[in-house]
Batch of 3 targets.
Target 1
Amino acid sequence: MNIKTLVREEILNQEAYSAAEVSCRIKLDANENPYDISDSLRSRIIERIKKVPLNRYPEPGSPEFRAGLARLYGVDNDMLLVGNGSDELIQVLLMTIKGQASGVMIPIPTFAMYKISALNAGHKVIEVPLDSQFDLDTTSMLEIIADKSPELIFISYPNSPTGNCFDAGKIEVIIKESNGIVVVDEAYANFSGKKFLSYLERHENLVILKSLSKVGLAAMRIGVLIGCPSLVHELNKVRLPYNLNTFSQIVASLYIENEAEFQKQADKVVSRREELFDGLKRINGIHPYASDANFILFSCSFDTNSVYVKLIEKEILIKKFSTPEVLQNCMRVAVGSSEENEEFLGALKDIMVGEGLESRST
Ligand SMILES: Cc1ncc(COP(=O)(O)O)c(C=O)c1O
């Protein structure tokens, strides 16, 4: 039997998201928080988990977490949808919105799952390259809005993998001009301090996505969507009933109670980011791009594949890119602890200088 004859064409034609499967002592490839939670918070989580009846399904719709989020963000409960990571919420949005005729618009480069999930859901994807400053090309985007009226637009703010926040004025113009939904994905907002939440009052077509993965709870897979009640009502029909397991719901509720503790860690990561940026700047042949997130994109004047492999030999994992073209000589490194950053910078320098990789002009 040829299984491929049973599979939808758009699935056959694409690659799965490639999360690195190599395990390294120093893991700087997935933009995680380098710091684990405090012992006292861990004990409180364990105490609550001990009492969980494992024979029962989780609470559908995560009511305690949603009530906490409503308080934290000052929004109504019916504006909130929580998911198994924001990845799931991206998928739910794409399964709900028509889009097939007019397409889903994304700037590129950006977070890979927008395109992968859009194609999986049968949408056409309209990619609009960022300008030379890695900002939105609003002229092209507005033309596409006028011409094709995409039903969904994804904007990562800060953007991954470039690390910058796009100009907020440009984003607002896109929200205003779009007849579709504009998603502002704030997965990295704890590191930028810039948020679009207050714009929700002004724009019914705005959806905000949040993730607890980058602030220290990646293992628990917790994402949040905030949007107008009529959209959330429809999205709820697509969301699977028990999408956030009981352990994740417990940890999510404790996150709300301890948000300040998580933000303190994020602030520490921001300080480490500046040190890492300075360190990268000092290495010949490396050009880091300014970042508002918990990672730094840098271009190198040498073969990134070779550097990537040599870093792995030193048990350091970062992220390399093969597409799009503009990223071909770029790599992305997550901000680690001071020790991790120092070891990474030392290793990168050694690889360049000591192992005789020849510089080529960029
Ligand atoms: C911009 C952006 N949005 C969403 C996600 C997915 O986050 P989650 O772990 O909540 O699924 C990521 C993960 O890397 C991301 O970079």
Target 2
Amino acid sequence: MKAKTISISNQKGGVGKTTTAINLSAGLAITGKKVLLIDLDPQGNATSGLGISNDKFDYNIYHVLIGRKTIKRATINVREFAIDLVPSDISLIGAKIELITSESRESLLKDAISKSSDSYDFIIIDCPPSLGILTINALVASDSVIIPVQCEYYAMEGVAQLLNTIRLVRATYNATLDIEGFLLTMYDKRNNLSIQVANEMRQHFSGKVFSTHVPRNVRLSESPSFGKPVIYYEEKCAGAQSYLALTEELLSEAS
Ligand SMILES: Nc1ncnc2c1ncn2[C@@H]1O[C@H](COP(=O)(O)OP(=O)(O)OP(=O)(O)O)[C@@H](O)[C@H]1O
Ligand SMILES: [Mg+2]
């Protein structure tokens, strides 16, 4: 069967995309799903967050996009967490320039993924904080998109722009691209603003916001520096529990 491919995207920086990509991947893997995590950000945070430093790989998503390596050849099997990873590093910045002159530049990732799609249940793509050619490639390649929204000032800023990009991708390359859901992140129940943002989002995007929200939780911010998804760092913490709940919610919707 073909994998379900989900982009984690928001052009706003620091809203919890990578945290979601890593911990949702780990949650799905722990339920026995076969998961490929694609790091599509030159910052390489999903890669380092799984404890993979860039001296551990010769090829990365850049080599896949420029057609030099297959996904399979660029994949690292991170056995500890039962996750397959296509890593990224700063060389991906070069791809942006090279891709712009390439002919089918919007569907390079989709074409690359199609050859590996049968091997997985889920392919999760961690997008960079921009709406450039990398994110377009992710959206063209995906069945759906999860949009993390930080429960902070200006949370909804930029969401309209992202929705426009999704509309554009639907109209041109990927008519069936679905919004899997908005995910409220860094929620602080003691903070009125968090409650306000959550209420606004649920009103404005009724039925499209995951019931699970991710609390602000220091364990979530510590675990990447230990190279671990949070469930392998401190399973009982609120952050870990929220990502397990998100995994369940996603799986129950998918079935
Ligand atoms: N729920 C949370 N509670 C506390 N800290 C969090 C939470 N989610 C993410 N963080 C921390 O906030 C920072 C930004 O998170 P993350 O890297 O996941 O965002 P991002 O959207 O991927 O950022 P970028 O746009 O730079 O790729 C990181 O230091 C991360 O550890
Ligand atoms: Mg990130």
Target 3
Amino acid sequence: MTQMDAAAYESWYETPRGRWIGAREVALVIRALQRQSGESLLDVGAGTGYFTRAVGASNGHADAATVAVDINSAWMQYAQQKSMQSAAMAYAVADARHLPFADAAFDLVMSITALCFIAEERRAIEEILRVVKRRLVIGLLNRHSLLWWQKGRNGGSGGYAGAHWHTASEVRALFHNLPVKNLKLMTAIHLPSASRCAKVLEATLPATMGTGAFMLVSVEPQQS
Ligand SMILES: C[S@@+](CC[C@H](N)C(=O)[O-])C[C@H]1O[C@@H](n2cnc3c(N)ncnc32)[C@H](O)[C@@H]1O
């Protein structure tokens, strides 16, 4: 991903299209996490903290510990400033491939469209698995989607430049031989235009349909 200013990245989530896409993705992440009261949450590759804030404070979880890490210190600083009001949210600079946390330190871990920018994604997954106790949820870009055709081909454009777009079979292969169970895949954002028609269609399609641009995989550690 080309280096982008944090405020410029975050401002996309304030556009009508970005607001709709962001809200759909947040809803899917919340649904997949099934966070219980008091459960801690780690956000890996949190960027400007959009998902950290939206998911971390959802359903009355504002007081449960939520920690966000990212390799980009300027973005972490921006994210921290954005959530000054919430004492339960902590931000740190860290590499997803070497997380500075003890084994099983978090009940839940999420990582949203970050692994698509990490060459050693399997290493990052192993590391995330090491620190999670109950469930991990990873958001990726779906190669079999209309958005890939529009923004992902030939190296990608804008914020998608350099991203890897996964297929469902690539995602399953990523977890092959790792100590996980109950792998589930869901997708959202089938028509990325955010038109009225796209919104109506989106509301009628099941999350199990494999053509949404946002692909969410949820797995549980074997021993949980
Ligand atoms: C497209 S942004 C996603 C940010 C945020 N999760 C969101 O969805 O708005 C990808 C993020 O992955 C981060 N990233 C890339 N490589 C990383 C690594 N090795 N460790 C931690 N974060 C990384 C980038 O700095 C960037 O913030």
